């Protein structure tokens, strides 16, 4: 799918035999392109074929390549997974092909990042390559910070459940969050490096404002990296403590079960003894049964008070 944008236009771009390239198109968005669309973009904008191969590879590393006034940028962005997926978040590559007056963005699937940028276009914001590049870096930084806030909320919720947990569900939940943070850490290091290299592009030196916007986005990316490291350390410590908490919770449960077993044992023992079909003391006394059972319950009550005082029940 192809879309093209200028300051007033957001329109799909259909590849036909009599197509004429829009002279005002500043941003061309490429998402899950067909072979014909790839050939079309490569012909009109000299986009290399490997750009689309790179954005289809989730393991692709962020990087910046320059050749004269043209630059290729690969960045990683966070993307949420389904609720039942093994990971909470993953990172996906996006490609930017920078020309002096046009930019091509490419991704293997639709992303919230593009929707956010298109929303800014609909608000009538001026569109040029330098400003769009700064907006992309800022939007990626915001996506990371939003994802990290969600992860932090899940860590806090899991910590509350963990206090009374006796199964492995919370452990695997923490493990999934930790895997997402590892992906974030690796991707953010690459994005930060690319942002630092981008600041040195001749294209950005034409406008101090856009340069400052990317510098601000770089600060946000560094903040996201620091938050990622803190949250990863928190999860690691929680997982280390999980074993002790789980063992302690199970021990407390067994202690309570054992204490109640002892409390109930006194009257149960009396009942079982006098249920035997053999001669027993006081068996002919009319009050033997209530007295003995009452004594058993008194003993149970005393045991209950003792265990209660020791906080075993």
Automatic annotation (TrEMBL):
Pfam family, one: CorA
Keywords, sorted A to Z: Membrane, Transmembrane, Transmembrane helix
GO (cellular component) term, any one: membrane
Location in or out of the cell: Membrane
Membrane topology summary: Multi-pass membrane protein
Keyword Acyltransferase belongs to the record: no
Protein's name according to its UniProt entry: Magnesium transporter CorA family protein
């Amino acid at each position: 799918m192809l879309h093209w944008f200028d300051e007033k236009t957001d329109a799909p771009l259909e590849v036909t035999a009599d197509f004429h390239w829009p002279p005002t198109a500043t941003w061309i968005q490429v998402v899950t392109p067909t072979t014909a669309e790839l050939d079309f973009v490569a012909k009109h904008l000299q986009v290399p074929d490997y750009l689309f191969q790179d954005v289809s590879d989730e393991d692709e590393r962020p990087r910046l390549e320059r050749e004269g006034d043209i630059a290729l940028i690969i960045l990683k962005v966070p993307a949420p997974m389904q609720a039942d997926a093994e990971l909470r978040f993953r990172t996906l590559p996006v490609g930017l092909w920078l020309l002096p007056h046009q930019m091509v963005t490419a991704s293997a699937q639709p992303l919230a990042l593009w929707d956010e940028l298109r929303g800014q276009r609909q608000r009538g914001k001026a569109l040029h390559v330098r400003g769009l590049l700064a907006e992309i870096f800022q939007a990626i930084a915001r996506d990371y910070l939003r994802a990290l806030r969600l992860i932090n909320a899940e860590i806090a919720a899991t910590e509350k459940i963990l206090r009374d947990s006796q199964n492995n569900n919370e452990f695997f939940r923490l493990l999934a969050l930790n895997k997402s943070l590892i992906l974030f850490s690796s991707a953010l290091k690459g994005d930060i490096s690319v942002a630092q290299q981008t600041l040195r592009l001749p294209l950005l030196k034409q406008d101090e404002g856009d340069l400052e916007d990317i510098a601000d986005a770089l600060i946000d990316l560094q903040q996201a990296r620091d938050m990622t490291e803190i949250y990863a350390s928190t999860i690691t410590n929680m997982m280390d403590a999980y074993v002790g908490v789980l063992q302690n919770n199970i021990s407390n449960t067994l202690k309570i079960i054992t204490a109640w077993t002892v409390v109930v044992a006194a009257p149960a023992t009396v009942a079982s003894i006098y249920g035997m079909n053999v001669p027993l003391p006081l068996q002919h006394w009319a009050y033997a049964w209530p007295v003995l059972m009452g004594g058993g319950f008194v003993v149970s009550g005393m045991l209950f008070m003792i265990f209660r005082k020791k906080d075993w029940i």
